[in-house]
Amino acid sequence: VPAAWQRPYLNIFKHFRVEEWKRSAKEGDVAALTDTRLKGTVYRIRGSNPASSYLQLPRAGTQSLGLIGHYLYLLFRPLPHKHFLVHLDVTTEDNQVVRISFSSLFKEFKSTATWLQFPFICRAASEGTAWRGEELRAGAGLARTPGAAPAEARWTCLVLDLPSILALYLGRRYGHLRGVKLCSNLLVRNLCTSDLLFEPGVRFSEARLADPSGRAVTPMPRELAFPVPKGEKWHDLYDYIR
């Protein structure tokens, strides 16, 4: 059956009603907070080590989210001076479960037939213009090494092209997103899946225009977008990593 209910995008926290903790699970120090800057609820996950506290979807490891969107959007901010860890479990077309992990703890990219580990480098707000998308590519020449998040780490929109990741590193075809485990130390605003590649910082009034390459521009849905005060620019306030 076509997953029409997942299109054009699926707000995962909203759809699975994370705040009720019936279809999601939490362990350790996980709290819902109101963020005045983002004008909404964020989840703070913190612990003495990254695996000690987490927010997990779905609640049971034997269940599956069954989300088929090609892109996964994670809106998050690393906690200052801490390491963090995120696990994504995806199922291939031939029903092989593969774990995709990224963390500031990983020193280098590692892979097996069932596990891809990407080092994540947290950038400070003072380091200039926003990143645009090569930071998670294995073997990319990085100016800095992974480590604890800086004091002024920014809110980040991380976009993962799940079919491309599986094809590039394992030669497998993507089936669906099975589960997500957000471990400490993070602030998380939301998760979203979609077949559309959203462009942050673009107003809906500008969406009718195309970029120089002729590609149609799709603005980020309002319920998933970071707020931008009048006179400010999105990329001066937040990071976008694809």
Automatic annotation (TrEMBL):
<dbReference type="InterPro" id="IPR040441">
    <property type="entry name" value="CFA20/CFAP20DC"/>
</dbReference>
<protein>
    <submittedName>
        <fullName>WDR90 protein</fullName>
    </submittedName>
</protein>
<dbReference type="InterPro" id="IPR007714">
    <property type="entry name" value="CFA20_dom"/>
</dbReference>
<dbReference type="Pfam" id="PF05018">
    <property type="entry name" value="CFA20_dom"/>
</dbReference>
<feature type="domain" description="CFA20">
    <location>
        <begin position="4"/>
        <end position="122"/>
    </location>
</feature>
